[in-house]
Design goal:
20 strands; alpha+beta; PH-domain like; about 450 residues; six-stranded antiparallel beta sheet; four-stranded antiparallel beta sheet
């Protein structure tokens, strides 16, 4: 391209318009919110095109000075107008490459390329924005192949045959699952109960201020005051989960799994099977009656920034029927048989510490896996390969110590999975801590 050094390429010419469009969208959202609240927008109308043109010009200048080049052993990215910056990403340090499509980029067929390198932290993340979707896909494939040759990724991860669709979440099931989570259900029931109590008619024979506050009209207003904000909060939470999980699909390539989801902005994340260190099975109370579960995984060595990408990088499926979930579990923890692993509850003494939740507590350990179960309303089952456990911990509260009980924790890399077995007998807890061999003498 004219003006660029040999071998360098600029990102797509539409990039400045996409970046400027983000500013325009932000202004529209802010102004719309202020108008909805009954006030003015707070700035003259002519300020909107001025800000848009200024942001567009700034993005255009930034685009002109942003270039990248793919070499034999590194990716080089130069950027900056006054203060120049040159990033060099060694191909043998690449851990994951994802194609992302925010809302505006999706409309124009654009995408960004997010490159994750080993080491973690802000310096381990490089973004190329924006490229055409085809260019982003082709460049991702090329970098993965080169990284595999350099030793940055397992060779199996670099294969790019057509991905096999393992599971797709239907919009109806996703919406129903968000509505029937424990949080929204309890919030809606609590709000309706509070509104019902607040809306009770006037109390006969109660004089003065109390009678006026408990009149039918005041009760109706108070009911709406309690009910509407709570229902809005429920709708917001349900809507957010539905939009972010829309179109959720799990695919299998030659070297691992990948997930992709999003209604307005499509995001994707790789789930390298060989780096999965733990699994969480979540079952809200209503889901258990319907046979639904959610699956999350702990993946070692992959750092993520935005909240949605963090969820994608740890979500195997947001909701699935048990039969479908079992097939997905077999993909990430082959050889695990949930029915064959014996699970035992805590001893009877635990009723003095946790009389309600003790009925759902459970733990199972064999030579290959450790499994723990807890949660009264929302039940969660944490599973981890014994080989993935980094360390173990034992805790004893005052009452636990008096009852001869202890809690054992299995420590994994950072992620959703965190196996913990509360209120086990102290001898058993020490046995789990120290591994095979006779338990220490009780004191």
């Amino acid at each position: 391209m004219s003006g660029a050094e040999p071998g360098f390429t600029r990102v797509h010419p539409l990039s400045p318009f996409l970046r400027g469009g983000l500013v325009l969208v932000a202004l529209a959202v802010t102004g719309g919110r202020q108008l909805a609240e009954g006030g003015g927008v707070g700035w003259p109308w002519w300020l909107v095109p001025v800000v848009f043109v200024a942001s567009l010009a700034s993005a255009g200048v930034s685009w002109w000075f942003t270039r990248y080049r793919v070499g034999a052993d590194e990716l080089r990215l130069d950027s900056g107008v006054l203060a120049r910056r040159s990033r060099r990403v060694r191909l043998d340090r690449i851990q994951a490459i994802e194609v992302q499509q925010p809302f505006l980029a999706r409309i124009f067929g654009m995408a960004s390329l997010d490159i994750e390198t080993a080491g973690g932290g802000s310096d381990s993340e490089v973004t190329l924005a924006y490229l055409s979707l085809r260019r982003a896909t082709d460049l991702r494939r090329h970098l993965l192949v080169e990284a595999g040759r350099e030793g940055g990724l397992d060779r199996a991860e670099t294969q790019n045959d057509d991905d096999e669709l393992l599971h797709r979440v239907t919009p109806g099931l996703l919406l129903a699952s968000q509505l029937l989570r424990t949080g929204p259900v309890l919030a809606a029931l609590s709000a309706m109960a509070a509104a019902t109590v607040a809306g009770v008619g006037s109390a006969a024979g109660v004089p003065g201020v109390v009678a006026r506050l408990t009149s039918p009209a005041a009760g109706a207003v108070l009911s709406l005051t309690v009910l509407v904000p709570a229902l809005l909060a429920v709708v917001t939470a349900v809507g957010k989960g539905f939009v972010e999980g829309y179109g959720f699909a799990v695919r299998r390539s030659a070297g691992g799994l990948s997930v992709r989801a999003g209604m307005f902005g499509v995001g994707s994340a790789a789930l390298p099977v060989q780096r999965i260190r733990g699994l969480v099975i979540t079952e809200p109370i209503v889901w258990r009656w319907l046979g639904w579960v959610a699956l999350d995984v702990t993946v070692a060595g992959v750092a993520v920034r935005p909240e949605q990408d963090r969820r994608l990088a740890t979500t195997l499926v947001p909701v699935a029927r048990r039969a479908d979930a079992r097939r997905l579990v077999a993909q990430v923890l082959p050889g695990l048989d949930l029915d064959a692993l014996p699970v035992t509850g805590p001893p009877a003494e635990s009723r003095w510490v946790d009389p309600l939740a003790r009925r759902v507590l459970g733990m199972g350990v064999d030579e290959v896996h450790v499994l723990t179960r807890r949660g009264l309303l929302t039940r969660r089952t944490d599973i981890a390969p014994v080989a993935a456990v980094q360390s173990r911990g034992l805790r004893q509260g005052v009452l636990q110590r008096w009852l001869g009980l202890a809690t054992v924790d299995w420590h994994l890399p950072s992620g959703p999975a965190s196996p913990v077995a509360p209120h086990r007998r102290a001898e058993e807890a020490w046995q789990l801590m120290l591994g095979p061999g006779p338990p220490p003498p009780s004191r």
